[in-house]
Amino acid sequence: MPGVATGQTDETRTRAMARAQTARALRPRPRRAPLPEAIPRPVKRATTRTSPERVTAHIRVTGASLTWRQHKDIRRKLGMKLGKYASSIERISVRVADVNGPKGGVDQRCRVKVVLMGLPSIVVARQDAVAQVAIDAALRATAEAVSRVLGRRREKPLRQA
CA dist 32 to 24, 52, 111, 115, 119, Å? Predict the structure, then answer.
């Protein structure tokens, strides 16, 4: 009976997939998780910022319009690009603005500010006619700048000779 054997392998395969999904759900969250909008005060006081879930990303929009999906996408991209530096980052602020208003032109500006612990803040601004292009360019440049600044900090000697 070939149908019975096929049904058993499908059932076995389904169970194995369910076990794998459960194991993935129980695994600790990766370093490259989306950044939250806010952290509850008791949690903020009690923990250090060693994971992306502990770094807040504030997104502000003036004049332009972003959907909730675009907000979620910005948080995801920030987590992917800056999650590995979470232990050195205090907070991140993303501001998207329509500079010229309804006139049109190259007027969608994205400004990203990353506040680092013990180092000066990093501010990156990019401007384009399309908001999503300006956001992606600003996030890419921010990741490069944070990497460069933190790399320099690690290269400094511990003591002057």
Answer: 15, 7, 21, 18, 22
The whole-angstrom separation of Cα 124 and Cα 100 is 19
Contacts (Cβ under 8 Å, ≥6 apart) of 156: none
Q: Which CATH number fits domain 41-155: 3.40.50.720, 3.30.2060.10, 3.30.160.100, 3.30.450.20?
A: 3.30.160.100
Give the start-to-end residue ranges of the domains of the chain. 1-30, 41-155
What is 53-99 written as a DSSP string?
GGSEEEEEEESS---HHHHHHHHHHHHHHHGGGGGGEEEEEEEEEES
Q: State which amino acid sits at residue 56.
A: T
What's the pTM? 0.66
66 pLDDT band, cuts 50/70/90, is confident
3-class state of residue 139 by DSSP? helix
Q: How far is CA 59 from CA 105, 109, 151, in A?
A: 23, 13, 26
What is the pLDDT confidence band of residue 64, given thresholds at 50, 70 and 90?
Answer: confident
- 150 neighbors 122 (Cβ within 8 angstroms): no
